[in-house]
């Protein structure tokens, strides 16, 4: 994208020599002010034009601000390659003798400038001329606090390429964000792959002007669902706590109710959709039959009532049938050995192994087995308040609780 440059006045040298700043200007610094001889920097940068949403993008995640906001850069000849060349030329200028003559005193708030960051020179906008100064580093998409002495005016030739970083929203994170604000920093510190690999991206929507990106591993075609995988890692370290509101899932005749927290219900749905997407393909399913069956191992098991696959742990097995526990629902079922599959841990579908069992167990207060069907109809898939009447009194014992209806 071309940017029109204002030509230097023919009397630039005289104007510069008539002020207290007698250092020479790089030939393409914005023209000096007639009153004081200092460059009129400003910013000539144009907005970045993103490719069509119909195209596959290659992106590099440079920063994760929150579950619903990441900063990415486009990878390709006219994007990252041009930026690499530009930053190499900046490094040569500002570490050379001419760069040493350029003064940060020439800069005003709102000017486009160069800033030294981790030993490299980056393009930025000077936001606040304080001590320290506040700058926005446009190719990293972040604000920094720096000493003003580490800034320099930015020649016009370095302002022709738009800032390369832009904000985006990872696909599906919008639903998870309300549950996870307290875990965000801890989660993203763990996810180094998310920030360093070049990823393929599909634009699935736009939200408040930001593209919503579905990210893929560039070494394969499997959807990484990185937000869920990372969340599973974190949840695996957390002690399960009985939720104050729940989604009832399975009730047995002894009055034991297995429930999901609202977050658990969402995660289980995402993991199950991922499993079923792969296992519904007959060609893939044939390669995923276990070579042997081991008690205590987790499998993907088809549930006869709806023919969908769910996570289940093997309790015991014979030649043709097995007893399994569906870990996210709490029910035990006898199933056919032919309906048990595994997923390779070597591919992207690892979520089913990472997510801990999500069924919380409570014993219903005032349980009446004759009202089981009525209670099941009242619950449906609603989110209901859960009130603990008696906490867990012995190891392995379920707390006594009641569901609160309107």
Structural features, described:
With 406 residues, the protein is of the alpha+beta class. It is built from eleven helices and 20 strands. It has helices at 12-17, 77-94, 97-100, 173-176, 184-190, 192-196, 226-235, 262-279, 282-285, 351-354, 372-379; strands at residues 57-66, 69-74, 112-117, 120-128, 133-137, 142-146, 151-153, 165-170, 198-207, 210-217, 245-251, 256-260, 298-302, 309-317, 321-326, 332-336, 340-341, 360-364, 384-390, 400-403. The strands form four sheets. Strands 1-2-8-10-9 form a five-stranded mixed beta barrel. A hairpin with a 4-residue loop joins strand 5 (133-137) and strand 6. Helix 5 (184-190) packs across helix 7 (226-235).
Question: Treating each run of at least 4 consecutive H or I residues as one helix, how many helices?
Answer: 11
Q: How are the strands of the biggest sheet laid out side by side? A: 1-2-8-10-9
Question: Could you tell me the strand content as a percent range?
Answer: 25-35%
Query: What distance separates the N and C termini?
Result: 60 Å
- Integer average pLDDT: 76
Cα gyration radius (Å): 30 Å
Q: How many DSSP-defined strands?
A: 20
> How is the biggest beta sheet arranged?
5 strands, mixed, barrel
Task: Please state the oligomeric state of the protein chains shown.
Answer: single chain
* Helix content range: 10-25%
Could you say which overall geometry the principal axes of the C-alpha atoms support?
Answer: elongated
Uncertain regions spanning at least 5 consecutive residues? 1-25, 220-226
The structural class is alpha+beta
């Amino acid at each position: 994208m071309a940017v029109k440059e204002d030509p230097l006045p023919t009397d630039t040298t005289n104007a510069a020599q008539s002020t207290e700043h007698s250092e020479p200007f790089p030939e393409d610094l914005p023209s000096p002010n007639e009153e004081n001889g200092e460059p009129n920097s400003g910013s000539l940068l144009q907005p970045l034009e993103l490719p069509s949403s119909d195209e596959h993008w290659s992106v590099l995640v440079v920063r994760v601000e929150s579950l619903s906001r990441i900063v990415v850069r486009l990878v390709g000849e006219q994007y990252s390659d041009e930026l690499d060349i530009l930053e190499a030329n900046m490094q040569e200028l500002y570490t050379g003798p001419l760069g040493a003559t350029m003064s940060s005193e020439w800069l005003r708030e709102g000017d486009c400038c160069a800033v030294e960051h981790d030993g490299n020179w980056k393009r930025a906008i000077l936001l606040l001329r304080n001590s320290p100064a506040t700058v926005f580093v446009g190719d990293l998409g972040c604000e920094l606090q720096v000493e003003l002495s580490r800034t320099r005016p930015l020649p016009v030739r370095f302002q022709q390429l738009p800032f390369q970083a832009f904000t985006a929203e990872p696909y599906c994170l919008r639903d998870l964000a309300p549950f996870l604000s307290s875990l965000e920093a801890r989660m993203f510190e763990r996810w180094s792959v998310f920030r360093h690999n070049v990823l393929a991206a599909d634009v699935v929507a736009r939200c408040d002007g930001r593209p919503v990106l579905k990210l893929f591993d560039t070494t394969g075609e499997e959807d990484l669902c990185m937000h869920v995988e990372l969340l599973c890692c974190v949840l695996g370290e957390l002690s399960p706590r009985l939720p104050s509101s729940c989604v009832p899932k399975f009730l047995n005749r002894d009055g034991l109710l297995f429930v999901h927290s609202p977050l658990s219900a969402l995660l289980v749905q995402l993991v199950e959709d991922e499993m079923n997407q792969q296992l519904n393909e007959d060609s893939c399913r044939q390669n995923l039959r276990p070579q042997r069956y081991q008690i205590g191992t987790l499998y993907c098991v088809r549930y006869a009532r709806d023919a969908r696959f769910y996570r289940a742990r093997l309790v015991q097995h014979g030649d043709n049938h097995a007893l399994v526990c569906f870990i996210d629902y709490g029910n035990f079922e006898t199933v056919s050995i032919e309906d048990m599959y595994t997923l390779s841990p070597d591919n992207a579908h690892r979520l089913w192994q990472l997510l801990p069992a999500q069924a919380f167990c409570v014993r219903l207060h005032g349980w009446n087995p004759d009202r089981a069907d009525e209670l099941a109809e009242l619950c449906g898939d609603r989110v209901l308040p859960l009130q603990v009447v008696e906490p867990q009194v012995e190891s392995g014992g379920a707390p006594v609780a009641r569901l609160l209806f309107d």
